[in-house]
Amino acid sequence: MTVLAPPAEAASRPSPPRDVFLPGDSRRQSPFASLRRRLRWPLGVYTTPVLILIVWEILAQAGVLKPTYAPAPTDIVSTTVELWRDGVLGPDLAISLQRAAIGLGIGLAVGIVTGVLGGFLRTGEYVFNGVAQILNTVPLLAVLPLFVVWFGIDELTKVLLIAFGAGVPMYLNLFAAIRGVDQRLIEMARTTGAGSWRVVTRVLVPGALPGFLVGLRFSLAYSILGLVAAETVNADEGLGFLITQAQTYLQTNKVFVGLVIYSILGLLADQVVRTLERVLLRWRPSYEAV
Amino acid sequence: MTVATDATPRTQTGVLVAQVIRRFGDRTVLDHLDLTIDDDELVVLLGPSGCGKSTLLRLLAGLDKPDGGRLEVPANRAIVFQGDRLLPWQRVLRNVTLGLHRPDADERARKALAEVNLAGRERAWPKQLSGGEAQRVALARALVSEPELVLLDEPFAALDAITRLRMHDLVHELRRKHHASMLLVTHDVDEAIALADRIVVMSDGRIGNTHTVQLSPADREASVAREQLRAALLADLGLASQH
Ligand SMILES: Nc1ncnc2c1ncn2[C@@H]1O[C@H](COP(=O)(O)OP(=O)(O)OP(=O)(O)O)[C@@H](O)[C@H]1O
Ligand SMILES: [Mg+2]
Fold this sequence. Notes:
The structure holds two protein chains of two kinds. Helix content of chain A is 72%, strand content 0%. Chain A is an all-alpha fold. In chain A, helix 4 packs across helix 12 (252-280). The longest helix of chain A is centred in the C-terminal third of the chain and has 35 residues, at 196-230. By secondary structure, chain B is an alpha/beta fold. Chain B folds into two domains: 11-76 and 148-237, Rossmann fold; 86-146, no CATH class. Helices cover 35% and strands 24% of the residues of chain B. Bound molecules: adenosine-5'-triphosphate and magnesium ion. The site of adenosine-5'-triphosphate has 11 residues of chain B, from helix 2.
């Protein structure tokens, strides 16, 4: 019986894997990588939304999507321009923005004042925390009927709903942020002879800032949700009115105009928080994805 | 306890620790501990990990209250923690001026940073500093208020050997300029010999052996007396058999 000699084992054994690190630009580039680098995609996080819009446009133009179902994006844009020219959109938008601003102002003011009191003082915690936790479990949309009963169907209900949406998350996040500031840093600050004011302004406030911005993000998002919900009640002006009316007459393109504006408001709010984070949290080197 | 409620100080300078007790749950970490530190004296506290050195320092800093006994310390004191504890959201200069309220705060902070060889790094963020640099900023922050008592909890443990030697020179120099009592905690017997006027070894929640160090700077580096002291300290720490 002849046995074929196996290949020399030492030669066939794979060498243990090793990593080689070189400066970024001298890395061996695959053709794909260099192509990608050259075509540095300018859209960033908006890549997917833009792709969806393009596909949507093509489907609408090809007649796959019926206009009453989902009008083409270009159709929505031209409807927007048309509504603006007719002087319909401007006033409605102004009314909605005013509601959002007043509601947001009230909500943030209440949320921040109670959050600061609750965060700094144990008495404040006892007074506000329980209520805030309970309110947090009540869905925003579920209190709408109650607000209508209590405050009527006029502006007050709308503004208060937005304020409710904005205030609760601000309180909860600010409270947690203040309580979450590293105890060792507070202790250190006290030993340096810094008075209470210094401890608050140089340790607690900056330390609570990241959490505050998280709260702000939620507040803005919920206030827009509150705006949308509030504007479905007795809508006689504002974006909600525009949408309700369009819905009645099956003008899908106008409904979309309203939705697009709502989402632009959301994007703007997000952008505001992002900018604030970039400016206020410079000291925090954050993770950068490749 | 009539002694504990007597709030008038008995000494005017330095540190007085008398019969201090500190418990965590049913563990007594400090058990009737006595210690005095004279004005302008540098005492090094040696002891195995977990014996209560940081606990004693926290009591002296006023961060915790004792469960018994009495401590007297100057009101103007500073502590350098085990770990830099810099505010990550403030630049180096503002970290140093944290406790200063006078108008020339920035000027003094700059001087303190220069003393720890960090001139020119005033505008850096703490995240941009090396471990040793951050620890030096913490030292500058402690010294900037010209305290009468400086408490140092393993301030140089994270530094490399060369930087550590520089820091020792720095401490000598600072002691010449600023007159302060110092209590320095360390694990390092050589560091203790290099710096101390007196070395105290902690065991069983009290100060065990005390060694007064009266050596010239040259003798601290190499001499028969130094080796004898070193051997005695290692014996106190229960490490004699290794040498
Ligand atoms: N806040 C606390 N709660 C409970 N136990 C504590 C607390 N702080 C310290 N201890 C205990 O007290 C003992 C002494 O702690 P301490 O920090 O003073 O040690 P140490 O001598 O400084 O040690 P090391 O050299 O490792 O820093 C330890 O066993 C620790 O577990
Ligand atoms: Mg310790």
